[in-house]
Amino acid sequence: MTYRNWLTTGVVCAAIAFVIATGAFFHSQRPASADSRAMILAVDPQPLVAVTKGGERSFSVEIADTSAEREAGLMFRQEMADDHGMLFVFEEARDVSFWMKNTPMPLDLIFAGQDGRIRAIKQGEPQSEAMISPGEPVRFVLELKAGTAARSGIEDGDLLRHPAIGTAHN
Fold it and tell me: How high is the pLDDT of residue 166?
């Protein structure tokens, strides 16, 4: 009888240990907000075009159009091509603020209104918690590698064209 109780106790303890170990493994595999892995979104098949005084400049973009995607943005991204960026799409024009915490790359933040017209271009410093805002409501924010806006001749008042912007005139 005593042997049977020890056997039952051993099996129960082993089962509990297995459940705890399995839970710990799966919990460690789940990405968390403090996780240092970059979010990579699919590249949109349509390029974003910046219409400048010097001509048109095309960029491949990832579209961040959900709260979770906008929150993660380019955090933890170590590198990005010169002709690549992320377009943040908000449901409506509103006051927005960005920061560069957990973002190791310096960025240009290009703020555009409902019509796709650029309202402000700001620079983001890596790992900074300083708030970056255009000072007026916007509907879109395009993040590019730092210096890309200047090299491409992108200025306030220029136009951003993309299907996500073209359909945003609700």
Answer: 78
Instruction: For the chain, count helices (H), then strands (E).
Output: 4, 7
CA distance 60 to 114: 21
pTM to 2 decimal places: 0.78
For 83-121, write each residue's pLDDT tens digit.
999 999 999 999 999 999 999 999 999 999 999 999 999
Contact present, 70 and 88 (Cβ < 8 Å): yes
CB contact burial 111-123 (16+ within 10 A = b; e otherwise): bbbbebbbbbbbe
Sign of CA dihedral 131, 140, 104, 71: positive
